[in-house]
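Review form for a predicted model. The reviewer records the input and the model, then writes brief findings.
Reviewer: anonymous (R2)
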Amino acid sequence: MATMVDVAAHAGVSVATVSHVLNDTRPVLPHTRQAVLDAIDALGYTPNTLARSLVTARTRSIGLAVSAISNPYFTEILQGVEAGALKHGYGLLLADPHDDPQHERKIVQLLHERRVDGLIVAPSADPEALLRYLGQHNVPTVFLDRLVEAPAGRPFRFDQVCAENAEPMAQLVGHLAERGHRRIGLVAGLPGLSTTNERISGYRHGLAGAGLPYDERLVAHGDSEATAAERATDALLSLAAPPTALVTGNNAMTIGALRALRERGLSVPDDLALCCFDDFAWADLFAPRLTAISQPSKEIGAQAVRLLLDRLASPDHPARTVRLPCAFVHRTSCGCAEPPRTLGASPTDLSQKSPAKGSLS
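Model under review:
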């Protein structure tokens, strides 16, 4: 098995130079770096990651704590995180907190004890224990998808990245109002999540922009998962004056809503118009095809890695919150006629079509 000494001899450089190339601890001239890399390739040298971590105090690993990994939205986020991590030479340790605050706290501690260099976390609706642990142990952390509110009067030390939520939701509501709907229901996510709060806010702004009153009876919580969303949809349809259109707060709840409609023998959009937050691979295969908000899930994951690496390089840099734009994907479940389709066409960018006036899982 080749050693670092062998690599140095083959490249005609010192062992220290090989170490600097491997660990990025000091600038190395491009031709010298290439000579070292060529020697590594020629000899089949594999760095001793454990030994290197003892020297650099870095393991080149990132811990990712995300619930509902089976959800296609979070699967795409995972793909973005993994691609970003590998691009920069980092491995990934993955755990599912199951949206349970106490389990979340334990999972994060386990990842931290495995000496990850930093964490990327989609926090639960009650992240108090999580924040306490991260603060006590000074763990570099980026929150993704769901934002955490900064403590009043104290500096916030965690970077965050998510999609815009309120404006896209307002656009869905405004679009249904333009179709003539006056009773628009919402199947909202798990209470306490920033995504839930912001999408409800966008729903209300969309109603106000269309001149429609807010009726709390038309909002039911589907808790961000299919089974609860099926019950929530059934409750909305059981109202004395049920909605004529429905907006669902994420892709899992869309599935639950469709199950409830099927059980009642109702069709979309003839009996009820439907729009959903979160586009997913099957949305284009339903009949009718689902009008949806598409989130930049892979870019959210990649951006989280960039923020974490920036934090590792500059620990005292002010915390940043990055919001990424969504896209409106206009199909037919809203009641519109089939739009002209162009092979390979991109969904409508929200920046190119304004939502109803007044309009952040």
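Findings: The longest strand covers residues 61-65.
Further findings: The CA atoms of residues 186 and 219 lie 5 Å apart.
Recommendation: see findings above.
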